[in-house]
Amino acid sequence: xxxxxxxxxxxxxxxxxxxxxxxxxxxxxxxxxxxxxxxxxxxxxxxxxxxxxxxxxxxxxxxxxxxxxxxxxxxxxxxxxxxxxxxxxxxxxxxxxxxxxxxxxxxxxxxxxxxxxxxxxxxxxxxxxxxxxxxxxxxxxxxxxxxxxxxxxxxxxxxxxxxxxxxxxxxxxxxxxxxxxxxxxxxxxxxxxxxxxxxxxxxxxxxxxxxxxxxxxxxxxxxxxxxxxxxxxxxxxxxxxxxxxxxxxxxxxxxxxxxxxxxxxxxxxxxxxxxxxxxxxxxxxxxxxxxxxxxxxxxxxxxxxxxxxxxxxxxxxxxxxxxxxxxxxxxxxxxxxxxxxxxxxxxxxxxxxxxxxxxxxxxxxxxxxxxxxxxxxxxxxxxxxxxxxxxxxxxxxxxxxxxxxxxxxxxxxxxxxxxxxxxxxxxxxxxxxxxxxxxx
Length: 440
Ligand code: FUB
Fold this sequence. Notes:
It contains two helices and 29 strands. By secondary structure, it is mainly β.
């Protein structure tokens, strides 16, 4: 009974949260968003607060992707502290940034107290490797070398900025893995705390940052030059006691601008107690004609609109979702990332799924279940919406004995939110789910 009440609360949290979609990732605690647009996809790199973190417990860096800003696919861990052989620390995988240059992807990773390292990969998914086997920068006299941000100016010169409570910068050589000239410490920046995010847009230079702690908002400064002087312009998001930390990542994607940041709203569903278990959110952001930025309300007071629709007639990884509170992802060598911790009454929602005029006739999923006797209801628009199909799942013989199962689908036409509702007699760990697709 207690479990059923809890599940109802989860479902309520899910439906309430979907308008703001705050946070955008619910299966793990994520922080320090570093979005990168590459081709038609947003690659969202994040740090990772462990589920049992009290203070900062951060061991690795994660990747999520989306082509519509609302449905996100989990690609798991893309780098860990162990990728830096010179690093003695087992904690301290702090705020990263990834940038592409000449077809290579450079990941700048601070290791708290041990400088900033760089990894490189041939694809945005990795594998990322350490090409220099030492820190790229490390000012050993303090622990201020955190939160790197890198951008390449129109003349090809790359700059890396970082630091708390001061901003430092250094030029990078074209190889992106070595520095050129001295490290420069910028004059004190009004409201600046940490987490700089530097970029150039329409000829203007921007430095967004986490504003003076605590609570942190997202402030920003502008300049006519990459080396300043920088003028603090105001807040992209005002500090609010609804959160504590923040940390910006800013992109333009498919004609809109977005600010990513962080909050404790996922943790708050579970407990009012403070732990460093943060979550990434995103909101649309607008520029004025003079290049200044309009203030964005707190994440929960924004509505995240989908850019385009989601195609259900492709092979979809089950770890793709707009909302899936209570679900978890796991990884196996053979099957890659899959969805797990699936309990009776929980839901997985994808937004804006386009079934087309003809509609879907069949649903196929690759699943594993120890006990069997469970099912997935396929509903439209909400967890109480029309049932268009039901997939019954027998025992497949083991938690990783994945099998392809299908069921007929009727009445799924046009564009709808798609809600999978999990049902089972045993209440917990009903199944593991690898992928799915519809056919017409
Ligand atoms: O996530 C660890 C640290 O907390 C980051 O490096 C800071 O920006 C703050 O978000």
